[in-house]
Amino acid sequence: MKLTGKIALVTGGSRGIGFAIAKILSENGALVVITSKDSEKIKKAEAQITNSFGITCDIKKKSEVQNVLNKTIEKFGKLDILVNNAGIFPKIKQLHEIDEEEWNEVLDVNLTGQFRFTKEAIPHLQKTSGCIINISSDAGLKAYQGFNADAYSASKAALIVLTKCWALEYAKDKIRVNCICPGVVDTDMTKPFLKNQKDIEFMNNEHPLGRIGQPEEIGKAALYFTSDDASWVTGAILTVDGGESIK
């Protein structure tokens, strides 16, 4: 039980990668707060994750983000771990076809939303010498032929650099800040790209290890970063993508 007594907050924790992270942190002793815009999804997640506490939140709204932190501190008295996982994926379009509203929506959720949660969490993490994990993407590390999701790639690349900025800014407070960059993982977000066996085989072959990832594999990486096993690790960018980004 590597996280006994720890309080963790996982944004977008009701499904996919966020759910897997919340579950594995809980299984290792943490009390986990999960957020989602969908109250029904939160209820389902709470039923499946021991020691979890769900709070509905629109990451685009400062007041709702503040409400999450306030309720977390009211209920548990502290915060040890923040996992910035919430994110959205846009429709595949070339740059000249993207509406400005679509562009802004992706950056507001995937980048400014992470800023909002981190800003509100920092004063509490300073008290516990806590840690932050940013969930980016291997699409933030390099460009991929035919992967026309520019706002998504830009937001994920920015999150990688912010990880390093925050790691340096708050090292004096002993707050560790690290980043995980998944490849294609089997979640609701990727299902539209895996509609048939041909799509699945293509995507598997895009990863040198021969398959897409599972949410639990990202959860295990998060467990490492949140535990004392990573007590001397900050500013690290861990790629968990079956080798996709090194091709």
UniProtKB/TrEMBL annotation:
InterPro entries: NAD(P)-bd_dom_sf, Sc_DH/Rdtase_CS, SDR_fam. It comes from the Archaea. Coiled coil: none annotated. Pfam families: adh_short_C2. Gene3D superfamilies: NAD(P)-binding Rossmann-like Domain (3.40.50.720). Belongs to the short-chain dehydrogenases/reductases (SDR) family. NCBIfam families: PRK07231.1, PRK12826.1-2. This is 3-ketoacyl-(Acyl-carrier-protein) reductase.
